[in-house]
Amino acid sequence: MNPKLKSFLSILLPGAGGFLAILACSLLGDTAGISLLMAPFGATCVIAFALPQSPLAQPRSVIGGHVLSTLVGLCTLTAFGVHAWSLALAVGAAIVLMLATRTLHPPAGADPLLVMLAGAKWSFLFTPVLLGAVLLVLVALGYHRATKVSYPTKWW
Length: 156
Prior knowledge:
The protein has 6 helices and no strands. The longest helix is centred in the N-terminal third of the chain and has 30 residues, at 3-32. It has helices spanning 3-32, 40-50, 59-80, 84-100, 111-118, 126-146.
């Protein structure tokens, strides 16, 4: 294969994967009448499709990181409300919890801020967070199988 073509494809393919993942979340969510999208999922797509071998792209990190960080945001919002210090506390606590549980996923660091600034309800933990993260992992799995890229390197 032509090296220039291979280089072009290596740039184009992760973008196509992100396109498919967000399209799937959007269309499935619309069909079901629920939201399966949130802004941090765009950053998740960068890692899952451009860096699929990274520990940060593995299902444990994608799903666990988003769920745990959202949970921290919801708990902090419920306990303390929204203040400069509680926003900072939530992000710091989410980082600590992700590290302690081996679910580090940088895009999930934004989840507590999103939850708190939007005043999200507890249902946000399930839709869009849990269902959306699972769908992103499933799309990444299918996509990487189709493109013959080994993903995930480990499930849990």
